[in-house]
Amino acid sequence: MKITFIGGGNMAGALIGGMTQQGFSADQLHVVEPDAARRDQLVEEFGVSVSAPDAPRPASDVVIFAVKPQQLRPVVQAALQNGDQPLLISIAAGVRAETISRWLDGYRRIVRVMPNTPALVRAGMSGLYAAPEVNAEDRALSERIFTSIGKTVWLDEESQIDGLTAISGSGPAYVFYFMEALQAAARAQGFSPDVAHLLAYQTVAGSVKLALESDDDAATLRVKVTSKGGTTERAINAFENSQMRATIIAAAAAAAARSRELGEELGRDADL
Ligand SMILES: NC(=O)C1=CN([C@@H]2O[C@H](COP(=O)(O)OP(=O)(O)OC[C@H]3O[C@@H](n4cnc5c(N)ncnc54)[C@H](O)[C@@H]3O)[C@@H](O)[C@H]2O)C=CC1
Ligand SMILES: O=C(O)[C@@H]1CCC=N1
């Protein structure tokens, strides 16, 4: 089994790191990457083979597209060489499997995946969608690849990727935004930058660990922190009065709408 990545950036690096720790061997993996320094880094770090985009590359059973969405079309159209029929996996945001299939005159052995950046520390969340023609073996292989960088969920409809992108794809940025705000709040309370950083990061890390290990849901855990007439109650009331919950729901809806829009834009042949 040979697996080729087209694009050897951040997300490809995360996947390769996870896969080599979870039973894939480095000599099964090849990366096509234009940046020579990045190619050297991938060889040194993971022991994979590499090539530049215009150089010949090994025949592959699986090709994983990990370039920017706007770079995808030419890369996809060059992917089926010498009559091979590999499983194609795309992690490019916004580009629909049906669009990739159209670029390849109806080729249907395609899986689309939306991972997220915590994949870099093997704590990713990936949503997977397979075209109906993709068989059980290809689905199982795709799942094995992405469980090497975290958890996975299968989506029945491709349109669900827009909602998933808005929650788990973009979601790490929402959490980092909250962490930035909590640090700013600590600075406003007079703490030094170092202490503000420690207080914010350890509070978020500890809360997530508690939530994951507890039988209580998030609402119950929140109530357990919130003493009647105490300090937390004041803060939560301030969140509620400023419609924070509704703002988060509306923000995710805006992200999902943008994902749908990108799907339209990137699917329009004239734009690429
Ligand atoms: N960053 C995120 O949170 C997420 C990103 N994605 C998707 O993952 C994909 C990759 O993202 P990153 O790894 O963050 O980007 P990146 O910029 O780190 O990696 C892209 C790589 O592709 C290479 N490249 C450019 N043209 C090429 C070509 N013609 N052939 C081969 N390689 C080429 C670049 O040199 C670069 O190393 C994007 O499509 C993005 O939408 C998906 C989920 C989450
Ligand atoms: O912001 C974006 O468009 C991509 C998709 C999910 C995370 N980053």
From TrEMBL:
The UniProt record lists the keyword Cytoplasm: yes
Keyword Translocase: no
Transmembrane feature ranges: none
EC code: 1.5.1.2
Record's GO cellular component terms: cytoplasm
Pfam hit, one: F420_oxidored
NCBIfam families: proC (TIGR00112)
Protein name per Swiss-Prot or TrEMBL: Pyrroline-5-carboxylate reductase
Organism of provenance: Amantichitinum ursilacus
